[in-house]
Amino acid sequence: MIKKLTTYFSFLLLLLLTISSFAQKQNIKGRITDNRGTALEGVTIKAVNSKTTAISGNNGTYSINASMNEVLEFSFVSFDSKKVIANATTIDVTLNASTSDLQDVILVGSRGAGRAKIESPVPVDVIKLSEVGINTAKMDLTSTLNAVAPSFNYNKQSGADGADHVDIGTLRGLGPDQTLVLVNGKRRHSTALVGLFGTRGRGGSGVDLNGFPASSVDRIEILRDGASAQYGSDAIAGVMNVVLKKSTKEWNVVTGIAGYADKKFNTFQFRDNKDYLTARPIDGITQSLSVNRGFDIGSKGGFINFSFDFLDQGKTFRQAASSDISKADGLPTNTWRQGFGDGSMQSYGTMMNMEIPLSNGFKFYAFGGMNSKKSDAYAYTRNWSAKPNRFPVTNNGDLIYIRDIMFTSGSGDTSYNPHIQANIKDMSLAAGLTKTTQSGWDFDLSNTMGYNGFHYYGNGTFNASNIGNPTQTHFNDGGFEFMQNTTNLDATKQFGTVNKGGIKVSFGGELRSEKYNISQGEYASFAAFPNSNGLEQAPGAQGFPGFSPDDRVRASRTVSGAYADFEFTPNDLLLVTAAVRGENYSDFGSVATYKTSFRYKLTDNFNFRGSMSTGYRAPSLQQKYFSNTLTSFSQGQLVQSRVARNDDPITKLAGIPSLKQETSINKSLGFTWKPFKGFSLTVDGYAIEMKDRVVLSGLFSAADESLPVALTSKLNTMGVATAQFFANAVNTTNTGVDVVADYQLKINNNNKLKFLFVANFQGITIDDIHVPAGLNTNTYNAQTFFTDREQYFLKASAPESKYSFSLDYSSKKFSLGTRITYFGNLALTGFGVNGDGINPMVPADADETGNTLVPEIFNYKGKFTTDVYASLKLCKAANLILGADNIFNIHPDFAVNPQAKWWAGDNETGGPWDGVQMGYNGLRIFTKLAFKF
Fold first, then answer.
1. Which of 207, 512, 680, 733 is most solvent-facing, going by the fewest CB within 10 Å?
2. pLDDT tens, residue by residue, 839-863
3. Helix (H, G, I), strand (E, B) or coil at 791
4. Helix, strand, coil share of the chain (percent; to 5)
5. How far apart are CA 686 and CA 733, in angstroms?
């Protein structure tokens, strides 16, 4: 009996203990984010006592069974582990980066939650504007990125019409419109401008990164890999995702001033010669003010963040330091470009970013803003002795001298410098709803609208054909507009467990509409006024003739697309992705692209990765429909040249086919390595094969009898000397290697040391040029279609190498830093003695007969620039920053063959230098005050 009772009580005790154990076990759920609120996928959660484990899934959510008051440990690569007591059934966790260099959780390149950048199967740079933007004299986003991103390239233009007013960057040596820009993951609209002169990526349109306040940007993620299958058209070179700020409860105010202190080439120092326009000993003075403030909305994490930026930038004026060509820094007096340098610009912009959690798993978000720019740049100089037909004259052909516009130079010649002015408006608004269901689906429905308007004005100039009437000196030249509206529906779900055979499935659709308009200028801006005196004065406003009725256009198209994206994680070592996308364009048909990539963990700290994809870029409406009669430089002369749109009768007579999509094959292979705490290294090689790149052709003469008679007759009837066309004309291959090495050492709680090395080594080859039969009438015309000079331009989209070393030491009260940037070799050419850019040769200075010709190739040798800065904490709320960019006042080599200096200025800008990356303005000093309260 006692034995039975003992057995009974033992069984009862075991049952009670089991029930108690189950009673204490709870299903604990939550969401894991970093300290910026970005969801973390792949975090390991372990219940310390029971050894139960789980992995966070899509959107950072997790679920684990654990006993109440048991310790849960959360661990994730590059983040500090965190232990939390399980004292509730819902526990949200925020993980802090183990070192600030590795806290970069990227959103671009993957649907759903973020991933640590060294865990990505493709290379992604993360540029934090709060760190790199404050310690430089560069006051705009584009030039700042040029200094810190390895494969981002940007060339400030001068004498390039609209390109003087909009700064467009590129990736990996490709065109500006071959990089897709997103804002908060949504497609950003491009500028309405087509770059025609001076600019790299001639004949293309890109996104103006200065078209919204830099103060609104938290970071920029640069995906350096083809991603058309994931995001659609334009993503051949890569994707730039601008992530807006979400911070609340504090003001961030920065005000600054900067100026160029170039004592070598600033024209102010030889102003007494009266050969050039001048400003001040310190010119290009730039003043800036930015304000950012966020506010909480409700108690569930809602917010709204506002930004405002103002920028006022003055002109710069540069010329050779001497007119003695025997000196290293001497060139002949520049009579054809007296106002060479950067234009002036004033801009202001606002931006808003908002999220509001709603009930039942819904969240509403919206972001958008507006930006306004007014800029002013000088065109080529008009000289009375060289071109009197570009001056206002009396009925007898005598010069009418206008004192406020014209001046007499040191040589005694009369000249004037037309102003090209631009008013640029930019607006955008995106809004959407996200929904997370209980079954794990994430849905995102959004609509994004963008607008860019670009309007030209001519000032301080004349329509010379209006004989005897020089009173009008300001002209409304017309302009163009581009509008884009994009609707997206995206869905994502993680099936199975991450790193245990799970697969993430994403799919969605997109409907996009685009519109492009050109509006004509006022009559006097383009007209050829009749006269009975036999005088042949040039028609249209000098500098930039207005758009005529023939240029007016209203074009539109619709784009529909669908994609599917998969991420497979069979174990914690391997990640494999695949994506496919199809799109249909109402104006030229359908395209399909695919992409696959992988990441394999050879060790805990070494990842091997690679990708292969096909890509495409649809010809923009700007390329298809832009047209204008411009003043071009041809055969050494300023002539009236027609840029004919793709459906123009002139284009058809020339045998140019309708534009179609550019296509590409992208391959990349690389690795990421984190050998010890605080240090990471990424190396990625790439090859991009492109076919049917859209380019702007060379100039074809109306006097060329070998061209089709119908074409030349039409040109002569229109009164233009030359014509050029957009065409799918070139196949290229870009190859290169990107390197990023990042080290951050925490000396103690108050002292830190940061080191960053970024590099790009690249090369571009031209594989084929497709010359239409109608223009391939002889060898000369075949070469004219895409000249040697244009080929050099294309290959100079990026230098052969570019790398930057940054070192920053910071303490509680102050910080010191320096950045040394190397801009490698590149070469450009002039037009040559024949003025056509075909195998350009010019007479050597040493041979007075002019019979000895030398190649007119401009070799820009690699050079280093050095930036320094210091920051001092004045009080808890204020920092003072002082510094200088290019402290040793380094300049590019002159755009001239040193053996033929008398041909200086025979380049795209007409100045001593082309627009190359390091710039020609020299030393720039700055100071800023930053407030945070």
1. 733
2. 999 999 988 887 899 999 999 999 9
3. helix
4. 10, 50, 40
5. 10
Backbone angles phi, psi at 237, to 5 degrees: -80, -30
Q: What pLDDT, on the 0 to 100 scale, is given for residue 399? A: 95
**Could you write out the DSSP letters of every residue in 123-134?**
-EEEEEHHHHSS
Q: Is 491 helix (H, G, I), strand (E, B) or coil?
A: strand
Please name which of 907, 912, 910 lies closest in space to residue 922, comparing C-alpha atoms.
912
**Kind and range of the H or E element at 328?**
none
φ, ψ of residue 314 in degrees (nearest 5):
-90, 170
3-state secondary structure 781-803: HHHHHCCHHHHHHHHCCCCCEEE
Q: How far is CA 122 from CA 115, 125, 163, in A?
A: 11, 10, 32
How many helices (H) and strands (E) are present in the chain, helices listed first? 10, 48
Q: What is the pLDDT of residue 637?
A: 53
Distance CA 458, CA 331 (A): 30
H or E element at residue 524: helix 523-526
Say which amino acid occupies 782.
A
Residues found in the chain: 933
216 vs 413, 534, 550, 560, 819, CA distance in Å? 50, 59, 41, 31, 24
Give the C-alpha distances (Å, rounded to integers) separating 382 from 542, 654, 835: 9, 32, 19
Return d(Cα 185, Cα 492) in angstroms, integer: 15
The closest alpha carbon to 425, from 520, 350, 353, 523, belongs to 350
Q: What is the DSSP letter of 212?
A: S
Give how far Cα 623 sits from Cα of 189, 479, 486, Å.
Answer: 15, 15, 20
The pLDDT, as a whole number, for residue 627 is 86
Q: Which of 103, 99, 53, 212 is nearest to 677 (CA)?
A: 99
Q: How far apart are CA 624 and CA 47, in angstroms?
A: 62
User: Measured between alpha carbons, how far is 52 from 72 in angstroms, rounded to an integer?
Assistant: 9
Residues in the chain where the model's pLDDT stays below 70: 1-25, 36, 58, 77-78, 97-117, 198-201, 630-639
What is the token pair recorded at 481?
A: 């507009």
Alpha-carbon gap, residue 31 to 51, rounded angstroms: 20
- What are the tokens at 38? 């970005």
Pairing of strands 302-313, 344-357: antiparallel
**Over the stretch 584-627, which tens digit does the pLDDT of each residue have?**
999 888 999 999 999 999 988 899 999 999 999 999 999 999 98
User: What's the rounded Cα separation, in Å, for the pair 128 and 887?
Assistant: 24
In angstroms, the CA 283 to CA 267 distance is 10
For residue 11, what is the enclosing H or E element?
helix 2-24
* Residue 37 vs residues 34, 79, 252, 301, 435: alpha-carbon distances, Å: 5, 14, 19, 10, 17
Percent of the chain with pLDDT over 90: 57
The continuous run of DSSP H or E covering 300 comes out as: none
User: Which residues on adjacent β-strands are paired with residue 670?
Assistant: 609, 684
Which phi-psi region, left, alpha or beta, contains residue 69 (left: φ > 0; alpha: ψ -120 to 50)? left
Picking from 40, 49, 11, 43, the residue whose alpha carbon sits closest to that of residue 107 is 40
Backbone φ, ψ for residue 534 (5° rounding):
75, 10
Cα–Cα distance for residue pair 355/364, rounded to 1 Å: 6
